[in-house]
Design brief:
Elements: H1 2-27, H2 30-36, H3 41-45, H4 51-70, H5 87-106, H6 108-116, H7 126-148, H8 157-176, H9 181-202
Helix pairs in contact: 1-2, 1-4, 1-6, 4-5, 4-6, 4-7, 5-9, 7-8, 8-9
C-alpha cells in the first residue's frame, strides 16, 4: 500500500514538474496535473494540499542544498582555520563550489523552476532571500577578519552586500545561460578568484597567493 502511494506521488510530481516548467506556477493547472497523472483532482489532494505544496515538493531539496552552500561564507567555516585567507582555503572553497555546480547541473529543472517559474509561489523571492542570507554570512566573516588581522582599511557593508549578491547571481547564471559543467567551473572559478583577491586588496591584506 505504501509503495502504491509513493508511486502515485511520483506520478503527480512528474506531471506537476512538466506543467510548471511549461506554464509557470501561476498559470499551471491542477486539473491538468491531475489528469496527466491519471487521477482526479480530489484524489490528488489526498497527497498534496494545494498547488504551492506541489511546487515546494519539487524545489525544497534544491533550496536545502543552496542553503548549505551559502553557509560556506559564514564565520563558523573560517574562524577555526589556521589560515582563513590563504591559497589552501581558496582551493577548498573552489572544491565546494564545484560540488555545488555538480548538484545544480544534476537538478537543473528544480533551479529553473525556482529562478524562472516561481512567481506566485512561496519561493518567488528565492534568489533575493538566498542573497540576503549569504550577505549576512559574508558580513560576519569580513568583520571578524578585520579584527583578527587588525585591518584598519575601511570596507563598507553596502560594498560587501553587492559583492555577495553578485556571487549568488553568478550561480544563477549557470542555470539561466544553460552552461555545461566545464563552462560553469571556469566561470565560477573566475568569479571566486576575482572576489577572493578583491576582498584581500580592499582589506589591505596580502593577495599574492
Amino acid at each position: 500500500m505504501a509503495d502504491a502511494s509513493e508511486e502515485t506521488k511520483l506520478k503527480i510530481l512528474t506531471s506537476a514538474k512538466t506543467e510548471f516548467l511549461e506554464k509557470g506556477f501561476t498559470n499551471a493547472s491542477l486539473r491538468t496535473i491531475a489528469a496527466n497523472a491519471g487521477l482526479t483532482t480530489g484524489a490528488m489532494y489526498r497527497h498534496f494540499k494545494d498547488k504551492d505544496a506541489l511546487f515546494c515538493a519539487l524545489v525544497d531539496d534544491a533550496i536545502d542544498e543552496t542553503l548549505k552552500m551559502v553557509k560556506a561564507g559564514g564565520l563558523e567555516n573560517h574562524e577555526n582555520l589556521e589560515d582563513p585567507i590563504g591559497g589552501v582555503h581558496a582551493e577548498n572553497e573552489k572544491t565546494f563550489a564545484n560540488q555545488f555546480i555538480d548538484y545544480i547541473l544534476t537538478n537543473k529543472e528544480a533551479f529553473v523552476l525556482l529562478l524562472t517559474k516561481s512567481a506566485g509561489s512561496t519561493h518567488e523571492n528565492f534568489l533575493e532571500e538566498i542573497s540576503d542570507i549569504y550577505t549576512e554570512n559574508v558580513l560576519s566573516t569580513v568583520h571578524w577578519m578585520k579584527q583578527k588581522f587588525n585591518v584598519t582599511k575601511p570596507i563598507d557593508d553596502m560594498s560587501i552586500h553587492v559583492f555577495a549578491t553578485a556571487t549568488i547571481n553568478a550561480f544563477a547564471e549557470v542555470v539561466l545561460h544553460n552552461m555545461d559543467k566545464e563552462e560553469a567551473a571556469v566561470f565560477i572559478g573566475n568569479i571566486q578568484e576575482f572576489f577572493h583577491f578583491g576582498f584581500m586588496h580592499l582589506l589591505g591584506l596580502p593577495c599574492d597567493d
